[in-house]
Write a structure and sequence with these properties.
homodimer, alpha/beta, Rossmann fold, six-stranded mixed beta sheet, 14 helices, 12 strands, DNA-binding
DNA sequence: CCAATTCCCGCAAACGTTCCCGAAAGTATT
DNA sequence: AATACTTTCGGGAACGTTTGCGGGAATTGG
């Protein structure tokens, strides 16, 4: 079906070695003329090189697997869109696998990727990844693994993440400076580092500004708009006073804002809403949601750099790069603007 | 680095053939005991089978390439999320490549996928795909290729798409039945079938209802919110009367709605806005945008079925399945509701 | 007890490359 | 003119697996 270097060699009366060398541009081991001849024949005969055989021989695939929990968030598909050309420039292709926030599928995907002999894996674990045995196994074997965005504590692998703590801190200070005292926090899934960082920031910012910390204001439920609505209603139904909501993600914030408006609250006059890591959706919605944005391009660049450095040198030092985010104050919390 | 069947064979004093057979469950050529022995040894020694070698030997990769123009739209990432388990059930894995709406990258990605010897390609071409020579080449070679969503006319390959014509038709009738006569159309990129179908539906629905067709009401610009805003402003600045906007996509519609409101128009009282193929964003925005929704799961199911049928039988008949969509009337055009 | 099956298993070739090694010829150095 | 080096090429093993073929041992039937 396909034409191989053997066919070319036969057609030209050369050996496969020479053809192989000509094709891979090993110019100092093959004469100008034969090289040209081979290249032309290859073109004419419609040769496409079989990467399978190359990889088998070289035991490298020049491929990195990107394993993400989902693709529906802007962050992940932007990240993938950014990292692909980045790695392509470095000579690597990517293969994307997704776990749909299901730990079992995450495990099976890791198996799939290593079956495929990818040279490295870029991982953002799913929200309920509990047992990290396969991961530590990979790391022990010095397999190039780098975590991004959602990282796991105590796993001795390189990771690139945004500075959740600082971002959450600034967001909280913004709310506090605009006069809010009863700030609810809709938390994220328990064990991933991001949730913890944000929660710590929440607590610490309150204490820094001498605002009493009330555990009842922290709700942990889900990540969708409907969850956000439920969470705010849960608080209000108990008669708890809330003048600001600090959400784990954009979707929660949108749902909460909607529910608040339905109950007659004005945003931001009565209640401010802010969220971590908004995307374009935050700007399209009314009111537009105040949020911090993750520096996707930078994260992709760093992740690409680190993974190939690990691939090319398994003993490269473990890196933990954190990349600062940018806050965008929008209508949902822009009290100063409104009061002017 | 990795343990192979040779290692297992040596450790057990067997031949590689036997080990291979035991591992691949060829139970009638290997005794119960040896099979058990091999399986245990494999487990114990941490054997993972090298798919590269398998594929080289079998000249199959059990992989289908999914080539999409982008990942940021809900449709594409949903499609991928849906098709992955679908194909996994059929024994295939997927590798995702994206062209970023760039024809050159599309071409190079097709090269990449065929280098990789994927068994088939699922393609949604990018908006400016002009020369289809490589595609017809693939088809001529009986390479399993199926187009989805964005299809190209005259290419003799199987495709699965939604019924753009009918969907656009119903959307238009909905606008007309609610009393609209000056309906603008924000068109899509020229040569892809979808744009054409929608435009035809636009024209035909008007004529069916005896509404004069005014070319000035058709604008073709871009696909983003800002484009939608520009397009509506372009019309209004000329003094053209518009009482409804029929958009190619959701983002245009959101931008247009926003621009209309900024100019003091009420939606839907003064102007209705409707769009093809909205996603959850359409429901989050205010006003929520009336749209038709693509049946992603069904499309993914069909695409999976067709591609493997072609892989397993290259002479399978060419199929062109169209899948009906569902209209959701939302605030942006819900005049009946408002007037009651 | 012999012939015909059946059951296991090993041998070796094959998939399409790459790359080490050596051969032959030419070129430069002494 | 002998030596050393360079250039160009072919031979052949190797990557890890599958699989057709053949053969010896065990089982069966008469």
């Amino acid at each position: 079906m396909y034409v191989t270097i053997v066919d070319i060699a036969n057609a030209l009366g050369l050996s496969t070695s020479t053809v192989s060398r000509a094709l891979s541009g090993d110019s100092k081991n093959v004469s100008r003329e034969t090289e040209k001849m081979v290249l032309e024949a290859a073109e004419r005969m419609g040769y496409v090189r079989n990467e399978l055989a190359v990889n088998l021989r070289k035991s490298r695939t020049m491929t990195v697997g990107v394993l993400v929990p989902e693709l529906s968030t802007d962050f992940y598909n932007n990240f993938i869109a950014q990292i692909q050309p980045e790695l392509q420039n470095l000579g690597y292709r990517i293969i994307v696998a997704l776990s749909n926030e299901d730990e079992r599928r995450e495990r099976s995907n890791i198996g799939l990727l290593s079956d495929f002999r990818v040279d490295g894996i870029l991982l953002s674990c799913c929200s309920n990844t509990a047992n990290t045995d396969i991961l530590s196994d990979l790391i022990r074997k010095k397999f190039p693994l780098v975590c991004f965005d959602r990282t796991i504590k105590g796993l001795g692998c390189s990771c690139v993440r945004s500075d959740d703590y600082k971002a959450a801190f600034f967001l909280m200070e913004h709310l506090i400076y605009s006069g809010r005292r009863h700030i609810a926090h809709f938390a994220g899934p328990g064990h991933i580092r991001n949730s913890e960082d944000r929660l710590h920031a929440y607590v610490n910012t309150l204490s820094k500004h001498g605002i009493p910390y009330d555990p009842a204001l922290i709700v942990q439920h889900g990540l969708n708009p409907s969850d956000g609505a439920e969470e705010i209603n849960f608080l209000l139904d108990q008669g708890i006073t809330v003048d600001a909501v600090f959400c784990f993600n954009e979707m929660q914030a949108i749902g909460a804002a909607d529910a608040l408006q339905k109950r007659g609250f004005r945003i931001p006059e009565d209640v401010s809403v802010a969220s971590m890591y908004g995307t374009t959706v935050s700007t399209l919605v009314k009111p537009a949601i105040t949020s911090v944005e993750k520096p996707v391009e930078k994260m992709a660049k760093e992740a690409a750099r680190i993974i190939v450095s690990r691939i090319e040198n398994p003993d490269a030092p473990v890196e933990d790069v954190v990349i600062p985010s940018q806050m965008y104050i929008r209508e949902s919390s822009d009290i100063v603007f409104k009061s002017v």
